[in-house]
Write a structure and sequence with these properties.
By secondary structure, this protein is α/β, with parallel strands linked by helices. The protein contains eleven helices and seven strands. The chain has a five-stranded parallel β-sheet with strand order 4-5-6-3-7, with helices on both faces.
Length: about 325
C-alpha cells in the first residue's frame, strides 16, 4: 500500500519517537535495578564479556572443553541474575530491553517489507489527514439519511429518488467493504447538493480505516498542485503530485468546478491514463452529466471515464437548500 510521502514521513517520525521513548524506559529500568542491586550491573558486564569470548572461541576453533567452560560460566551468571530478579520481585521482562516492535526492532521494515507497526502508524496518520481534508468527521454510512429524498415515483428515473439513493448507498457500502486493487472505478454524477461528496467521504474513511492509502482532493486543489509543480519555484521533481499516482484509491471531488484549460485537461488525462494502466481505482464526483465530459475535456478523457467507470447517478432535491 503506497502512502503519500507526507503520511510516511509523519509515521516514521512517530515510530522513531516511540523507539526513543522505549529506549529511555529500558535505560531507566536498568538504572533503577542497578542502584538497588549493584551486583546486577557486574553480572551484565560479565555476561557481555562471556558472549564476546564465546564468539572469539568459535572463530579460533577452540576445543569443545574451552567452549564448554565459557558456556558453564555464562549459565552460572544467568542463574544468579534470575535469582536476584526473582528475589527483587521485578515484573517479567523488566530488564529485557524489549524493543518498541519485536518484529522489526523499531526500524519499520521487516526485510524489504513495511512492518505492521509502521503500516498501522501510516493508517492512523492517513485518517488524520482525511479528517483535516473532509472537515466535520461525521461522514459515515450509518448517518446517511434516505428520508430526505422524495419517495414519489419519478418517471424519468423509473423509480423514486429515495429508492435510487438506497441502491446507491448499498453500492457504496459494498465497494468500501470489499475494496481492492481490482474494485474498479466509480463516477458519481448528479446536481449539486445530492450527497455525492458525503458518500465519497464515507468510502474514503472506511477504505482508509482498512489500511489502504486514500488520496481525497477537490479537482481545484488537485490541478493547483500540478500547476505549482509545473510552474512553481520549487516544482519539477514530481514530489507534489506523486501522491495522486501512488495511492490505492484516488478520489477527485467536484470535477468540473475548476477553470478548464489545456493544462488541466493534460493533467487529468495523465492521472486517469496512468492509474488505469496500473489498474488503480479512481472515484470521481461531478455535477456534469457523462455526455458533457467530452465537451468539457476531450474525447480521450470521456471515453476512459464513460467506458470504464461505473456510473452512479444521483437524483433528488438540493439537500443544502433544505439545510441538510
Amino acid at each position: 500500500m503506497a502512502y503519500s510521502a507526507q503520511v510516511l514521513r509523519r509515521a516514521r517520525a512517530r515510530l522513531e519517537q516511540a523507539k526513543l521513548e522505549r529506549e529511555r524506559e529500558n535505560e531507566a529500568h536498568r538504572a533503577a535495578a542497578y542502584e538497588r542491586y549493584p551486583r546486577l550491573r557486574e553480572i551484565d558486564r560479565e555476561l557481555q564479556q562471556s558472549m564476546a569470548e564465546l564468539a572469539i572461541a568459535f572463530l579460533k576453533k577452540d576445543s569443545e572443553e574451552a567452549l564448554g567452560a565459557i558456556r558453564t560460566r555464562n549459565q552460572t551468571l544467568q542463574a544468579e541474575r534470575n535469582w536476584i530478579l526473582e528475589a527483587g520481585e521485578f515484573e517479567d521482562g523488566y530488564l529485557d530491553d524489549t524493543p518498541v516492535c519485536t518484529r522489526c526492532g523499531g526500524t519499520g521494515y521487516d526485510g524489504s517489507q513495511m512492518c505492521s507497526c509502521l503500516r498501522e502508524l501510516c493508517r492512523q496518520e492517513q485518517k488524520k489527514e482525511l479528517t483535516s481534508l473532509l472537515g466535520s468527521g461525521r461522514e459515515s454510512f450509518d448517518t446517511f439519511r434516505l428520508d430526505v429524498y422524495s419517495d414519489a415515483y419519478d418517471p424519468k428515473l423509473g423509480t423514486s429518488p429515495r429508492e435510487l439513493m438506497r441502491s446507491n448507498l448499498n453500492i457504496c457500502k459494498k465497494y468500501a467493504a470489499g475494496f481492492s486493487a481490482a474494485s474498479g472505478s466509480l463516477l458519481f454524477s448528479g446536481a449539486t447538493g445530492l450527497g455525492k461528496t458525503f458518500l465519497s467521504a464515507c468510502i474514503a474513511r472506511q477504505i482508509a480505516d482498512r489500511g489502504f492509502s486514500v488520496m481525497y482532493e477537490t479537482a481545484i486543489r488537485l490541478f493547483g498542485d500540478f500547476e505549482t509543480e509545473k510552474f512553481g519555484a520549487q516544482g519539477g521533481d514530481g514530489s507534489l503530485t506523486r501522491k495522486y499516482f501512488d495511492c490505492d484509491l484516488l478520489i477527485i471531488d467536484d470535477l468540473g468546478t475548476e477553470m478548464t484549460t489545456q493544462f488541466t485537461v493534460s493533467a487529468l488525462y495523465s492521472v486517469l491514463n496512468t492509474r488505469m494502466m496500473e489498474g488503480k481505482p479512481i472515484l470521481i464526483s461531478t455535477n456534469l452529466l457523462p455526455e458533457a465530459l467530452e465537451t468539457r475535456y476531450s474525447p480521450q478523457i470521456a471515453s476512459r471515464i464513460v467506458g470504464t467507470f461505473r456510473l452512479i447517478k444521483f437524483a433528488g432535491d438540493d439537500l443544502r437548500r433544505k439545510g441538510l
